[in-house]
Write a structure and sequence with these properties.
The structure is a homodimer. The first copy, chain A, is an alpha/beta fold. Chain A is built from 8 helices and 8 strands.
Chain lengths: ~220, ~220
C-alpha cells in the first residue's frame, strides 16, 4: 500500500447562530409545532421521500413544508402537487446552507399557526448545512444506496449531528456495491444514538418506521 | 397546480481569487502541465472514474492526483492503490470548497515538475466548489444517473462553469427514471459549449471519448 501524504489547510468562516435557533424552537414549542430539518446530497431522494411521508400522515396532522434551493421552485412545487399541503420555496441567494436567521425569516413569512409538523427540505449538500443549527427540533438525513457506504467516513459532521438517518433507495441495492452492515457500523461509531431506517421513498418500503418516529415526536411536543 | 410562494434571502460571502488562479495557470503552462478540477455530488463516482481514467493513460503520461476531503484519506489512498500514481490528500479543515490560494499551497507541497497531467478531485458538493476558480485549465463534473435529470435546474452554476460533463453510472440507467435527452437539453441550455459524455467509470464504457479529450488538451498545452 503506497503511503499518501496529508497536508492540513484550515480556515474558520462559520459563526454561531445557536441563540437564534433556540428562539425558533421556543416559539414552535409554544405553538405545538414539531420542526424537522431534512438534509442529504443532491439526488438522494429528499423530495420523493417527503412527498410519500406527507401523504401517509396528512389526514392526521396539519403539515407545512419549506424548501431551500438556489433558484428553482421545482421541489416545493413537486411537494405541493404531490401532497396538496402548503409549501414555501426559499431562495437563499446561491449559498450552500440556510442558517437560523434565514429560517426565522422564512417561518415568519410562511406562518406556522395551527401546524403540527413543519418540514424544512434543506439544500442538497453534505457539508455546509451540518454547520448551521436551523432551529429544528430534530435533524434527519438521507444517504442513498448509489452514493456508497463510505460516506459517513467522508462527511462525519453530517452523520454525527443527525437524529435519524434514512438509508434510501433500498429498492436498488442489488445493483450497487453497498454494504449495509458497514454503513450501519460507520454511522453508529460516529453517532451511537442515531436511529437508522432503511427505506425506499419511491416504493414506501420502511416508511412505517419513520411515521412511528414522527408520531412519537409530535406527541412529545404536544404533551409539553 | 397549486401556486408556490417564493421569498428571496440573499447574502454575499464569496470573494474573488481570480488573480491567484491565473498565476497557477501561468506556472503550469510554463511547466507543460495540464490541470483539471473534477467536481460532483458525494457518491457520483469521482474516485472510481479517475482511477479508471488514470489506468488507461498512465503509460503515456506522468500523472499526479490531489484529493480534497474534510478529514479522511480514503480517496487519495484508493487512487494511489488502484493506479500507482503519486497522490496527495488535502484536508481543508471542514470547508465546503477549495480556493486558488489553498490549491497553490497544495501544488507547492506536491511538486509538479515533469507532470503532464495534474488532477484535482474536489470535495463532493454541487454548490460551493463552483464559486471558486482553483487555477485549473478545465473544469470537469460528474452527474450520476441515480441523482436524476433535474440537477442542472437546481445547481445551474456548477453546470454552467464546467467544460466537460460526464453522465456517470450509465450501466444502471434501466433502474432509474433518468431521461438522457432532458438532461442534455437542460445542460446545453445553461452551457451550449459543454462536452457531454455518458460513461460508466466502473465498466469503462464511454471512457475512450474522455481520453481523446484529455489527449487533445495535453497536446495543446505542450504546443504552446
Amino acid at each position: 500500500m503506497k503511503t499518501v501524504k496529508v497536508i492540513e489547510i484550515n480556515e474558520n468562516v462559520f459563526s454561531k447562530n445557536d441563540e437564534e435557533a433556540d428562539k425558533i424552537r421556543r416559539n414552535l414549542n409554544e405553538n405545538g409545532t414539531f420542526f424537522i430539518n431534512v438534509m442529504s446530497s443532491p439526488g438522494s431522494g429528499k423530495t420523493t421521500t417527503l412527498s410519500t411521508l406527507i401523504n401517509m400522515i396528512k389526514d392526521r396532522y396539519e403539515i407545512g413544508e419549506m424548501d431551500v434551493d438556489i433558484e428553482s421552485t421545482i421541489d416545493a412545487q413537486r411537494v405541493a402537487d404531490a401532497t396538496g399541503v402548503r409549501s414555501l420555496q426559499i431562495h437563499n441567494g446561491g449559498l450552500c446552507h440556510i442558517d437560523a436567521d434565514m429560517t426565522a425569516r422564512a417561518i415568519e413569512e410562511f406562518g406556522v399557526e395551527g401546524l403540527d409538523l413543519l418540514i424544512l427540505e434543506n439544500i442538497g449538500n453534505l457539508v455546509c448545512p451540518a454547520e448551521f443549527d436551523t432551529g429544528a427540533h430534530k435533524n434527519v438525513m438521507l444517504l442513498s444506496i448509489p452514493e456508497g457506504d463510505d460516506k459517513p467516513l467522508k462527511y462525519p459532521l453530517m452523520f454525527s449531528m443527525c437524529d435519524v438517518i434514512l438509508i434510501n433507495k433500498i429498492d436498488t441495492i442489488e445493483y450497487f456495491d453497498f454494504d449495509m452492515d458497514k454503513a450501519r457500523d460507520r454511522i453508529l461509531k460516529l453517532n451511537p444514538n442515531a436511529l437508522i431506517i432503511p427505506i425506499s421513498g419511491k416504493t414506501g418500503e420502511g416508511m412505517d418506521t419513520l411515521v412511528q418516529w414522527i408520531d412519537s415526536e409530535i406527541s412529545k411536543i404536544k404533551s409539553n
